[in-house]
Design brief:
Layout: H1 22-35, E1 48-53, H2 57-60, H3 71-84, E2 91-97, E3 110-111, E4 123-124, H4 126-131, E5 135-136, H5 142-154, E6 160-161, H6 178-191, E7 196-200, H7 222-228, E8 233-238, H8 244-255, E9 263-266, E10 274-275, E11 279-280, H9 282-295, E12 298-300
Parallel strand pairs: 1-2, 1-8, 2-7, 8-9, 9-12
Antiparallel strand pairs: 3-5, 4-6, 10-11
Helix pairs in contact: 1-6, 3-6, 8-9
Length: about 325
Amino acid sequence: MELPLPPHFDASRVAEVWRVDYGARSVDAAAWAERHAIRPASDDAFRTCLFAVDCQNTFCTPGFELFVPGAPDDGRRICEFVYRNLGRLTEIVATLDTHRAFQIFHAAFLVGPDGRHPPPYTSVSVADVETGAWRASHPALQAHLERYVQALADGGKYELIVWPYHAMVGGTGHAFVSAIEEAFFFHALARDAQTRIEIKGDDPLTEHYSALGPEVGGEPNLALVEHLRTFDAVVVVGQAKSHCVAWTVEDLIRLAPDLVPRIYLLEDCTSPVVVPGAVDFTEQADAAFARFAAAGAHVVRSTTPTSAWTGMMQS
């Protein structure tokens, strides 16, 4: 059965940044588990993973660096899904996009003929690099830049995009959305199940949309793939639908095709990157989800009773 929302949850504060009261929530979680007869996750016969991609202030909180419109409502629904299905979610796996100042998609990495760095949302093509419209700010990295944009083109990936400085490690933007952090913490204590945190994106020489591997070069995160294989259902939420969520699911289907029937995408808990007047990836996001559905993944809504999700959860 779905559980009620706990008294501490305030949906009106999902778009705010605040300090989680760990002490109070730990007491509340123990009492909530006892009141609703919530058993430890280790007792689950049917194992369900909530795979939460980049639920961070940098993407989800208004006024932050790479805010995704729709993310606050997505975040509210993520919290509600966690609380209502507390006794059914075996484990939460959460990724943290993690960056520093000098990365290939940040302005400091590139420079134009006039010596200026590119503005945010500049798209850098193979031709741009070949003609010198944009070059590496450090000459020793020019050859890498040339190979990199060519590899993106050859692989059918998005062109290199200069993103605003975001998800800076240790900064407020890097942190989980406060309400989501609180929900994850509450789940961990109520179910006696540690949240698994996966760091992604800290290689300065490549983009890293997918939680399972970089855009160019590097090795896939096979340890995470194998961990996800231990679950009977993998429920995917987070930001952004057009980039990190889409590329993560794309890689998961490619690396673990046997998992496809166990993948559930909460379409109302993710939104595409849209910056009015700059970029709009809605079409690409919708096309990606259509591909995943055609491949056999389940596209559902968080508000649909989980009993209606064919084969997903058992009471």
